[in-house]
Amino acid sequence: MLALNLLEQADVEVLLIERDRHRMGAGVAYSSSESAHLLNVRAGNMSAFADRPDHFCDWLAARGLGCDTAFVTRATYGRYLREALAMAMERYGRRLKLVDDEVLDIEERSGQVTLGLVNGGLIEADRAVLAIGNLPPHDPPGLAGAGLPAHRYIGDPWAGDFTEGLANDDPVLVIGTGLTAVDVILRLTAQGFSGPIVALSRRGLRPHRHLDGLPRPRPVLAKPAPELSELVHWARDEARRHDWRLAVDSIRPITQMMWASADAEKRARFLRHLRPFWDVHRHRLAPAVADRIDALVQSGQLVFRAGKIAAVRANPDALAVDWRPRGSDTIATLRAARMINCTGPQGDLLRSSDPLVRRMLAAGRIRPDALRLGLDIDRDGHVVDAKGRASEHILAIGPMTRGDLWEVVAVPDIRIQVGALARRLVNAHWVAGEGL
């Protein structure tokens, strides 16, 4: 998306570097081929361009694939991004180059950046933007280094086929009850799996559904941003008088402002106590997906549990998982032929195995943000090094900037971020600011 937005600025040459050619343009999320994997946002809010909100809907209409209120498949959105990239290649020619390689390091030298590639080559550029998306999930507490058999414990559900070798009636334990867990459950059942599934998380919360026919939310316009206690009272009152979704959606335009105004202690309290509740109310399921999950629960095949894993033992035929139900001191035991880590993408750089992240960390060219949600950046998106200095030539966008912006993991937010950055990189924001 940044490449597409940059190319619309005059005289910019873009090198888009991707180590997995099969995911070029679509990434992890939109490379899914499962028909059950739908977008969690209506098509009308998924354009890749903030200044052309109908771009995706027009693309859908031209191909008879849906309308602005539809929740289309993620594969369809991946196709949209790939076609947009292909059209950019045709339109802008040599100004866009796709590089099939992996970046191992980025250094600043003499007012430029030098990127070292896996194949041994070097690329020099005026700016480098880290658009690395989410890091793979971290192992839950107690499982890291536990030495569990690889065919029993799947640490990253997107790193391979987690259904391989699974018998149709094997019991499956899913660690996590959020969107990743929903994706994994849908894929299991779409392939005919009929065995029992237990989804376990500390609170047992699962994402809510979108509702059709709701009025437009009433924005909360407040400067400075309201105190959290005020906002909680307001949201509760709105939820009683209307649908709670309207209350949550009304907060969205000021979420980044609220996050920016909160100090480190307030942010940490939010993450510790409220983040699970925010996630299940803010990031919702398409109605068809929610219906499928509800049907699995009603049939008894899927059970959501709240609790904490105490220990895991590998037996010859399965894993024995000791867990403590929430609010209880009693230890229960689950038998799982396969346990899948669905705790979701993480952002702690210090736990990352990514070669680029590890090398830049070791060299002190980047550092984690205070809450270890991702990269530390300044207000304009420049990465901050180990000594607290903002880089002049290395920037970051997307989910790895959530420590500074929080609400920057969905397309509607990312397209605003990349659009603004594209203009800023060529100083076009000054022209827009003056209305020229």
Polypeptide structure, described:
InterPro entries: FAD/NAD-bd_sf (IPR036188), HpyO/CreE_NAD-binding (IPR038732), L-asp_N-monooxygenase_NS-form (IPR052189). The protein has 436 residues and is α/β, with parallel strands linked by helices. It has three domains: 223 residues, FAD/NAD(P)-binding domain (3-Layer(bba) Sandwich); 114 residues, FAD/NAD(P)-binding domain; 55 residues, no CATH class. 32% of the residues lie in helices and 18% in strands. It is built from 13 helices and 15 strands. The strands form four sheets. The chain has a seven-stranded mixed sheet. The protein has a three-stranded antiparallel sheet with strand order 3-4-5. A three-stranded mixed sheet has the order 6-15-14, with no helix packed on it. A hairpin with a 5-residue loop joins strand 14 and strand 15. Helix 5 packs antiparallel against helix 6. It is globular. The two termini are 25 Å apart.
